[in-house]
Amino acid sequence: MTKHSPFRYFKTSPAIIRLAVMLYVRFPLSLRNVEDLLHERGIE
Asked: Nearest CA to 20 among 4, 31, 10?
């Protein structure tokens, strides 16, 4: 059985998804705040 990446259906890189999830879980931020932080860093 082959293992499939859990990110295979997303256009965004897995590293960016991991960063967004880490920010959301680690800090008391809303998803909107996480989106703003990523945008400030130049990550679209």
From this structure: 31
